[in-house]
Amino acid sequence: EAAAAFGCLISDMWLGELDCVSLKGFHSALGKRYPTFSKRTQQDAQEFLMCVLNELHEALKTVRTQLWKRRGVTDAKASRGSVSETSIITQLFEGQLSYDITCLECNITTNRPESFTVLSLPIPSKSACSLQDCLKCFFQQDTLTWNNQIHCSWCGTKQDAAVKGTITKAPQIIIFHLKRFEWQGKHNRKLSTDICYPLSNLDLSPYSSPLTCKEVEYSLCAVVNHSGSLDDGHYTAFCKHSVTEDWYSCDDAQITNIPTSSVQTDTAYLLFY
Question: Which residues form the USP domain (predicted)?
């Protein structure tokens, strides 16, 4: 139901017959599947995005399975090469990370692959930093000790370990979630750090495997902004027209053309490249 409502929403948007479209139908359908988002309170945009992508992915998989059954395609053929687990969502947004985990006792390194749809990046400064600073912080080598020790199969016990991740498959569209929150005592507070992010030529090669990632330069295509506090605020979006390359600000029903210089903002929360 949510996927069908999303399809109607996109259809209305692309027909171009309306100045703006209503999200009520889609919001209602998604709220039935995820009751948290049916409440009239502020919810996290990144969590909402993940739910939407997951819902669309599962719905598209179901539709394709039904089509295969009508055509007499066997489950064995359908599942060959994990094709049955893919959809246009995974084709566009899913990337692959590889974590090299080195036991600091025996120095044996093991590899752990992990797929991702959104990269949640830490913010290393409270005043100002760049997106590259956030990426460096995310991909820097980390040491796991104490309660975070890993079980080394060679040593047979838990050991301290060094962990470093790299991108082994870059998605067509990469989404960055800027973690604008931190614990301060018993309270979670928002970070208003001014993060400088490029509008084009974002280079991910320093964090990518040279053997598997070739073209890893991206251009910004959308931004989700959040103003206000963690418990109360307002979401807006900047979207780049795929044909004219003009930028537009989407603030509820207000859609306005904005200059490129306005795309850089200290309220950015999600970046789409």
Answer: 1-273
Phi first, then psi: what are they for 218, rounded to 5°?
Answer: -125, 155
Query: Which ranges of the chain would DSSP assign to H, the alpha helix?
Result: 2-15, 24-33, 45-70, 75-78, 88-93, 131-139
Cβ-contact 190, 229 below 8 angstroms: yes
Q: Residue 52 — very low, low, confident or very high, per pLDDT cuts 50/70/90? A: very high
pLDDT band at 73 (very low <50, low <70, confident <90, very high): low
Cβ(238)–Cβ(247) below 8 Å = yes
Average pLDDT, the chain: 91
Q: What is the mean pLDDT of residues 177-204?
A: 91
Distance CA 46, CA 56 (A): 15
The β-bridge partners of 95 are 116
Sequence ranges of the domains in the chain = 1-93
**Cβ neighbours of 151 (radius 10 Å):** 11
Residue 182: phi and psi, rounded to 5, are: -155, 150
The dihedral of CA 208, 214, 219, 224: what is its sign?
Answer: negative
Count Cα atoms within 13 angstroms, Cβ side, for 49.
Answer: 18
pTM given for the model = 0.91
Q: What's the CA gap between 175 and 119, in Å, rounded?
A: 6
Tell me the torsion sign for CA atoms 121, 126, 128, 129: negative
Half-sphere exposure at residue 144, Cβ-oriented, CA atoms within 13 angstroms? 19
